[in-house]
Amino acid sequence: MTQSEKPKQWWPSPAKLNLFLHITGQNEKGYHLLQSLFQLVDIGDQLAFETTDDGIISLKTPLDGVAEQDNLIYKAAEKLQQHSSSPLGCNIWLDKRLPMGGGIGGGSSNAATTLVALNALWNTQLSLSELAEIGLTLGADVPIFIHGKTAFAEGVGEKITPTELPSPFYLIVFPNCHVSTAEIFAADDLIRNSAKIQWQDYEFTKTRNDCQKLVCDRYPKVANLLRQLLEYAPSRMTGTGACLFSVFDTFEQAEQVKRILPEDCQAFVAKGINTSPLHEYLAKMQLTSA
User: Fold this and answer.
1) Residues carrying an active site annotation
2) Domain range spanning residue 83?
3) Contact residues for 90 (Cβ-Cβ < 8 A; gap 6+)
4) Has this prediction a pTM greater than 0.70?
5) Distances (CA, A) of 160 to 105, 154, 157, 173, 239
6) In 3-state terms, what secondary structure has residue 177?
7) Which of 9, 23, 56, 110 is buried deepest, with most CB atoms within 10 A?
8) What would the pLDDT profile of 27-79 be if each residue is shown by its tens digit?
9) What are the start-end ranges of the E strands in 115-157?
10) Is residue 288 part of a domain?
11) Do the domain assignments include residue 282?
């Protein structure tokens, strides 16, 4: 895509971290019940949209190895179109910056941005709660990004309590290996009986990621990198992996550790935020068009 073809209006699609992840059981359908604290961060992908009158949804920047109909961006647009009976279509561009399969919410965030943006551009006038219901059919993390607040989540991800957290700096590291979420959640030795906590009682040192030991046992690269990070700061795996994160007070501290990491991993420094840049951009767009 040349610069002249590049759409001008890019919608943010931020990443997230699971500061902890406790699996507390399974429901009658077999879905895992969890508790987690989702911290939004100030890095992410970007998407651009061009509405069309032909009703066709077209992804102009496909992902390698992912068929268009299997892409969460396409699925989100299709579901909104069906739910709202909108006759409009769209062309969609993705500026992909986040690693795929890293556990920092790239695909879920892309789906959420698609729903929020097209709800505005197609003028379908659905509420955030309605968009979140659609989003939940695409993935447990999608509603978090739609509501756009750092939040405590329970159930299968649908029970959300927005919260305010301090804004430290995170060194986020992707060891360039893909961890299958389906494999981890299907494992016989996955912890599924963690005691529930009240979100007000959250402390990093008193929580954990129930998937972390299982992933480290199966993926030595993740385990080795985590051991290295723990020498410098409180560190943990996010989601079902493979991304790891360390918590620092300053950007400089995080950047210093980043410089000594192995060359075969991807690393970036991000700041924790409480409100998604997606909603800030949406508010700006609404003011501009008013």
Assistant:
1) 16, 141
2) 3-163
3) 49, 50, 51, 52, 57, 58, 77, 118, 121, 122
4) yes
5) 16, 7, 7, 27, 17
6) coil
7) 110
8) 998 889 999 999 999 999 999 999 999 999 999 998 888 889 999 999 999 99
9) 151-154
10) no
11) no
